[in-house]
Amino acid sequence: MIINDFSKENSLISKYIFELRDVSIQKDSMRFRRNIERIGEIMSYEISKTLNYETVKVTTPLGEKEVYVPDNKIVLCSILRAGLPLHNGVLNYFDSVENAFISAYREHPNDDDDDFEVIVSYLASPSIEGKTLILVDPMLATGKTLENVLEALKNHGKPKQIHILSVIGAKPGIEYVEKIFPADTHLWIAAVDDSLDSRGYIIPGLGDAGDLAYGEK
Ligand code: URA
Fold it and tell me: What's the complex ipTM?
């Protein structure tokens, strides 16, 4: 896996991460969503540098010129509901991609412990065969959700290339997805934290991204 960890360099992303984590700022849900969206926009610009480009001729009112435009067919797949602000950020830049949505939730088989399974319950996707797949999951905690999503998408074809976009990832989750995704998968991640708590929440993370963006369930 090719890991692009934005916390290793100085960029505006670190300010957006600060605001997403800070308990006194993250309560402003509009700012919370917009900060995630902004991270999606910056990551999209970086992804655009890895795509294939073709030469096309453009006609202006005053003449013609050969220019380069990306020729990848892209499917943007988001995990509901926390993935939506990041999805919007990517869509702001890659404005004509195809879209896929998948819902995954945690089910606790035993009431007396924190063990959970990830259940995929809804999937709407075009074919991903031979296309560039951008998978959006803002909190890469255990990696189990991404594993289930990868499995569910198998019925829709084999992508040429996969990019995973995450805002905060936990080291154990990153190690897990490294094992199950193809070696040439890119992981674009804004911050990496060391651990998870017993419920699978990232420590210190930022809390529940879905609740902060859209309200408590
Ligand atoms: N999902 C979240 O919203 N937060 C976490 O810390 C882990 C999963």
Answer: 0.96
